């Protein structure tokens, strides 16, 4: 099942991330490095917003919504669809986006830094 949404072009990155951690070894490594549930709230130019999550606490799965059923996100990142595209493509730095107010982080800010290696792995697979 694709996680992409036509009104959020950057959402195709979630499929790339899922592909990057699809093997057992990659998934276990990502869970070990991530250790949290990461939620993303993306906003598109039309003013709509949708949520996706990456569970790197238990299952190593991705999905639509703020967290897997019965779970709560450890950290939620709120940013525009365009900025998420740049972040996943390696053309923007999360710290710079945060400092300029383009990325808002709710929850455990330190956990947010643990997502970087997983995004880097997905950069090779993302076709954004």
What is the first-to-last residue Cα distance?
Answer: 19 Å
Approximately what portion of the residues adopt beta-strand conformation? 15-25%
CATH class: Alpha Beta
Unreliable stretches: none
Residues in helices, as a percent range: 25-40%
Arithmetic mean pLDDT: 92
- The count of helical stretches stands at 6
How many independent structural domains?
1
CATH-defined superfamily: SCP2 sterol-binding domain
CA-atom Rg in angstroms = 13 Å
Structural class of the secondary elements?
alpha+beta
**SSE series:** HHEEEEHHEHH
Please provide the count of β strands: 5
Organism: Cryoendolithus antarcticus
Protein name: SCP2 domain-containing protein
InterPro entries: SCP2_sterol-bd_dom, SCP2_sterol-bd_dom_sf
Domain SCP2: 20-120
């Amino acid at each position: 099942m694709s996680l992409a949404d036509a009104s959020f072009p950057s959402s195709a990155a979630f499929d790339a991330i899922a592909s990057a951690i699809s093997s057992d070894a990659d998934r276990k490594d990502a869970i070990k490095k991530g250790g949290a549930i990461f939620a993303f709230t993306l906003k598109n130019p039309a003013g709509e917003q949708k949520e996706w999550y990456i569970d790197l606490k238990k299952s190593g799965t991705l999905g639509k919504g703020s967290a897997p059923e019965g779970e709560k996100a450890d950290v939620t990142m709120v940013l525009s669809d365009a900025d998420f595209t740049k972040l996943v493509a390696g053309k923007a730095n999360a710290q710079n986006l945060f400092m300029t107010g383009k990325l808002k982080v709710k929850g455990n800010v330190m956990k947010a830094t643990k997502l970087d290696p997983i995004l880097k792995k997905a950069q090779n697979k993302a076709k954004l």
